Amino acid sequence: MSAAMVELRSVHKSFGSLEVLRGVDLRVAAGEVTVILGPSGSGKSTLLRTVNHLEKVDSGSVSVDGELVGYRRSGDKLYELPEREILRQRTKIGFVFQNFNLFPHLTVRQNVTEAPRSAQRRPKTEVDALATRLLERVGLSDKAHSYPRKLSGGQQQRVAIARALALEPKVILFDEPTSALDPELVGEVLDVVKGLAGSGTTMIVVTHEVGFAREVADTVVFMDEGRIVERGTPAEVLDAPRHERTRLFLSKVL
Ligand code: ADP
Ligand code: MG
Fold it and tell me: Which residue range or ranges hold the ABC transporter domain (predicted)?
């Protein structure tokens, strides 16, 4: 079996009395694309947020590239890492949000160069060359000097993807990257994500786009009520789901 790039073991997470993750085990091999499907409120975003320590787990563990995220182990206890270590780990993990979350006061190019400059302290000429390559890759070379508010939602999301790639992350997490887009803009964003999948980037993608899952995923995971109900190849989960809850969900989104 190839090495795990992302591994969650028995992850539990509650908000007050609401148990949102109820023992999640997930393993994503290097270079693989995992698509997570599931109804609203099932814990998909929370799961992604534990992977880069935007949420702390209550128990269980998360590791990326063989390193515990946000914690250090001592015997069977987990101690939280200092903030600067958590920030260092986050540079290994790209995150693309539903609502783009671009810096509104920075140009497209500056959005892409900000993190490698400030978090990684890479030289300006190197980072500028990187931004040029990445904007070309997402088809936005001509928008380098525009501000986000001048762009369509699809263009903004492609900038967000270029920005995530700028840190040369080990894994990229996508949280419903096309849910906020007008239908005619969904395709251009999914095409960029497909291109990344083809280049061997490790990705976890939360989406309701079943066609995308079928085409791009190595593994499809179905989540409900804080648990992984079913996992398998797209053919297994989408065409021959074993669980009633998966069938019910698919009958609503397909
Ligand atoms: P999904 O992404 O599958 O829609 P979420 O992970 O966003 O689900 O949320 C799962 C549940 O946890 C929901 O009931 C949501 O309201 C709740 N939740 C998420 N984040 C918080 C938070 N920071 N505080 C309290 N409840 C939260
Ligand atoms: Mg969500």
Answer: 6-250
Predicted TM-score (pTM) above 0.80:
yes
Q: How many helices (H) and strands (E) does the chain have?
A: 9, 12
Instruction: Out of 15, 205, 223, 253, give the residue to mutate to test ligand 1, the one with the largest number of ligand atoms within 8 Å of its CB.
Output: 15
Atom of ligand 1 nearest to the CA of 47: 6
Residue 98: nearest ligand to its CA? 2
Assess whether the C-beta atom of 13 lies below 6 angstroms from ligand 1.
Answer: no
| pLDDT values of the chain reduced to their tens digit, one per residue, 254 residues | 578 999 999 999 999 999 999 999 999 999 999 999 999 999 999 999 999 999 999 999 999 999 999 999 998 888 999 999 999 999 999 999 999 999 999 999 999 999 999 988 999 999 999 999 999 999 999 999 999 999 999 999 999 999 999 999 999 999 999 999 999 999 999 999 999 998 889 999 999 999 999 999 999 999 999 999 999 999 999 999 999 999 999 999 87
Interface predicted TM-score of the whole assembly (ipTM), two decimals? 0.98
